[in-house]
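Hi W.,

Here's what went into the run:
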Amino acid sequence: MATLNEHIVSSYEEELTNLAKLIFEMGGMVEVAVSSATRALLKLDHGLARQTIEADKAIDEMQKRIDEIAVSMIARRQPMATDLRAIITSIHVANDLERVGDMAKTISRRALQIDGLSLAPKFYNGVKHMADLILRQLKAALDAYATRNAAAAVEVCNADDEIDALYTSLFRELLTYMMEDPRNITQCTHLLFCSKSLERVGDHATNIAEHAYYLETGRQIGTAPDQHRVQVKE
Amino acid sequence: MSLESAAIATASVSRSNAPSKMTGEDVCVFYGAKQALFDVNLKIEQFNVTSLIGPSGCGKSTFLRSLNRMNDTIEGCRVTGKINLDEDDIYDPSIDVVELRARVGMVFQKPNPFPKSIYENVAYGPRIHGIARNKADLDEIVHSSLRRAGLWNEVKDRLLEPGTGLSGGQQQRLCIARAIATKPEVLLMDEPCSALDPIATAVIEELIDELRENFTIVIVTHSMQQAARVSQKTAFFHLGKLIEEGKTEDIFTNPRNRQTQDYITGRIG
Ligand SMILES: Nc1ncnc2c1ncn2[C@@H]1O[C@H](COP(=O)(O)OP(=O)(O)O)[C@@H](O)[C@H]1O
Ligand SMILES: [Mg+2]
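Here's what came out:
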C-alpha cells in the first residue's frame, strides 16, 4: 500500500481523487441497497422494497457517470501504470457494483410478491445470517479496494467459500420446509431465489476484491492447488 | 490479455527468448571531466525494438551514440566498459569504425537529407561502402530501400528531385531509407518523430514495426505513448543510470521501481 507522490499536473491528481471518491460513494449506495432489500424481505416491508427499487436508478446513473469519467480520463491523460490500473479497475468495480444494485432490486421485487405480515421465524434466520455475511464481504471488498490492500483482498476471496457453503445448506433447509408442508412452498421459493441473489452478490464482492488485488499489485490474484487464493510472489 | 495491457498493447508481442544483438557491460561515458553515464548494463535483443526513455539529459542519446561510436566524433568524450555487437567488441582497436557504422545505422531527430537528389541520398552509402557491384545493383538497392521505408510510391516519379523538397515526414523516411541502404543489422533512432506531425509520426511508427522483421532497432523517444506503441523492450534512464529495463508492457503497466513509476505517470519524483 505504497503512498503515491503527487502528479505534476494537479488537475489530473484531482480527477483521480474524484474517481476514487465516486467509487466510494457508489459502494455506500450499494451497501444501503443490499441491506434495505434484505430488511424489506425479512420484515415484508413493502414500502422499503419500493424505495429500494426506486433507488437503483441512482446506482445505474452513478455507474454511467464513472464510466464516462474513466473513458474521458483515458482519452485525455493517457494514464500509465498505477494510474491506468486505478482507472480501469474503477470501470470494473462500478460494473460489479451496478450488478449488485440489480440483485438488491430483484430481492426487493420478490419482497413485494410475498403476502402476509411476517416470515415464519425458522425461514427468517438462515436468510438473515447469509445476508449479514454478504454485507460483511461487500464492505471488506470495498475497503480492500479503497485502501489498496492486497492481503485483505485475498482474505475476501477466500471467505467466499463460506458463503457458497452457507448457500448450499440454506438451499437444503428451505427444501426441507417445502417437503414438510406444501403451504410453505410459495414463501420458501421466493426465499430460495433471494438467497441465490445474495450468493451472487458474494461473487461480485469477490470480483471487487480481485480488482483491488490487481490495482495494488499489477498482477492477477493467484490460485493455489487447493483452490485457495494466494498472493503472487515476485 | 487483460483490458489494461490491451489498452497499451505494444505493436506486436515480443519475440520471446530473442538472442541479444548488442550488449553493453558497465558502460560509462564521460564528457571531459563530467560523467554522463554510470555503469550501464543493457542487452539489446535481436529483431525487437528497444526504447530508451527518461527525462532530458539523463543520457539516452549518449548511450545510443555509444552503440555505433558516434561519441568518437565528440571532442573530449570517453567511453569505458564494453559494448559488443554479436561477438565483436566494438571499441576494440581492430574495429573499422566506418564499417561499424554501416552495420549499426543511425537516424536523427531532425530529418537531415543531403542537398542532393532523392536517388543520391539513398545511393550514397552503398556506393561509399562498395556494396553495389554495378548501376543495376545500385538501382535495386535504392528501390528496395525506398520501398522498405514506405516512401517508394510517393517518390518513384521524382527520384532525381532534391530530397530537401520533400515534406518533413517524407524526409525522415528518406533518412530511414538512407540508413537501411547499407544493409545495417542495427538501426539507432534518436527521437525520430519529434519534428513530425501526428500523421507522419504514425507512418514512421508503422514503418518501425515493419522494419523489425529485418533489423534490430533502438529508439530514443520523449513520448511514453510512442515507446509503449512501438517497442517490445523499454529501458528507463535517470541521471545517467539505467534504473529499470524490461518488457514494455510490464514497464508501462507495472514498473518495479518507484522512480520509473513516478516518471511514466507524471509524478513529482
Ligand atoms: N557533446 C556534449 N558535451 C558535453 N556534455 C554533453 C554532450 N552531450 C551531452 N552532454 C551531457 O551529458 C548528459 C546526457 O545528455 P544526453 O545523452 O544528450 O541526454 P538525453 O538524450 O537523455 O537528453 C547531459 O548532462 C548533457 O548535458
Ligand atoms: Mg537526447
